[in-house]
Amino acid sequence: MASHDRARPSVVLGVGAGIAAYKACELLRLFTESGHDVRVVPTRDALRFVGEPTWAALSGNPVTSEVWDSVHEVPHVRIGQGADLVVVAPATADILARAANGLAGDLLTNTLLTARCPVVFAPAMHTEMWEHPATRANVATLRERGSLVIDPAVGRLTGADTGRGRLPDPAQIFEFCRSVLAGRERDLAGRRVVISAGGTREALDPVRYIGNRSSGLQGYALARTAAARGAEVTLVAANVALPDPAGATVVRVESALDLRAAVFEAAENADAVVMAAAVADFRPTARSGSKIKKTSADPEPVHLTKNPDILAELCERRRNGGKPAPEVIAGFAAETDDVLANGRAKLARKGCDLLVVNQVGEGLAFGTPDNAAVVLVAGGEPVEIPRGPKEALADVVWDLIAPRLS
């Protein structure tokens, strides 16, 4: 067995026997190019999809599925003991079943039994297999024991089938794993959280709309970090062109009214709601059923009406004992000037527990990988978050939310 450089995080990549095994090559590349030392442990049948030489060449480490190879190095024990993270992608229904029942018939299942580090499963299988009661029970067992099982994505499966069971995008699995490796506590385990992201669009006609510049990057970072900390995440995404975050259930919407309906439905049983979406304040009073034509005459003025204030309505319903009534409600306020003054006024007016206030404008916040903000806390001192990756800001937000959950 190759000697590992302990200055580099040690990752074991388990590979199950599914057609999605080829996607694990991309996940392996993301780990190695970001400085991780990766040992690939495929199942025997996984090598029918991607061969041993490919894994060895990409990882720079020897590859085997057998406990009998290099026995003097006791690989069935040592690989798991020396890992900082074990991630199984794709995790088939068979692997989930064997892991849940503590079986140890090959090198991968032995490694899962000896690992004392975080373990992440990224399932991939047909929808019927994922929804089978046996698989659901096995997933519940693994989660109860502390393993992180990412819900599969919805999309094209083997053959002509489409449904839930697709392996999440490798880049999203990698971001999820990187959050886990950061060592945050799983302080959101068992919690249900709802996050809104992106920017709503209010239709003028079938072609044109009133919108904003929100990319959804911050909301997606909130979803990724919450999932890595153990939460069950529902992400209501308004017009976002990003891959679904691993571990989140994504509900796609377009308008402010669509977003309101989706958030209220998802929040019925939620412990926390974070409204990170940029929701249009106004919408046209009338929508043309056909494209508005340009003529020589001046265009007709566009008459607007107010959209509902979703954040304020959530807070008011909770205050009056109505539903939904999440325990913690946080909002975002994008400001171009008088940032703190406007933010404090919004916090008082809307009645939420936390308000993340950030300055936006040319090159700030919208569409960028970094962000800076001040979190205004109802009845507490503001928390300043210096400019940095949006995942870092997201983690601070969850650091503030988690202790407020009873």
From TrEMBL:
Gene3D superfamilies: CoaB-like, Flavin prenyltransferase-like. Residues 193-406 are annotated as: Phosphopantothenate--cysteine ligase. Its EC number is 4.1.1.36, 6.3.2.5. Residues 1-192 are annotated as: Phosphopantothenoylcysteine decarboxylase. Binds 1 FMN per subunit. Its cofactor is Mg(2+); FMN. It comes from the Bacteria. GO terms for molecular function: phosphopantothenate--cysteine ligase activity; phosphopantothenoylcysteine decarboxylase activity. Keywords: Decarboxylase, Flavoprotein, FMN, Ligase, Lyase, Magnesium, Metal-binding, Multifunctional enzyme. Pathway: Cofactor biosynthesis; coenzyme A biosynthesis; CoA from (R)-pantothenate: step 2/5; Cofactor biosynthesis; coenzyme A biosynthesis; CoA from (R)-pantothenate: step 3/5. The keyword Lyase applies. It catalyses: (R)-4'-phosphopantothenate + L-cysteine + CTP = N-[(R)-4-phosphopantothenoyl]-L-cysteine + CMP + diphosphate + H(+); N-[(R)-4-phosphopantothenoyl]-L-cysteine + H(+) = (R)-4'-phosphopantetheine + CO2. Residues 188-402 form the DNA/pantothenate metabolism flavoprotein C-terminal domain. Residues 11-178 form the Flavoprotein domain. Pfam families: DFP (PF04127), Flavoprotein (PF02441). CTP binds at residues 281, 291, 308-311, 332, 346, 350. Catalyzes two steps in the biosynthesis of coenzyme A. In the first step cysteine is conjugated to 4'-phosphopantothenate to form 4-phosphopantothenoylcysteine, in the latter compound is decarboxylated to form 4'-phosphopantotheine. PANTHER family: HOMO-OLIGOMERIC FLAVIN CONTAINING CYS DECARBOXYLASE FAMILY, PHOSPHOPANTOTHENOYLCYSTEINE DECARBOXYLASE. In the N-terminal section; belongs to the HFCD (homo-oligomeric flavin containing Cys decarboxylase) superfamily. In the C-terminal section; belongs to the PPC synthetase family. This is Coenzyme A biosynthesis bifunctional protein CoaBC.
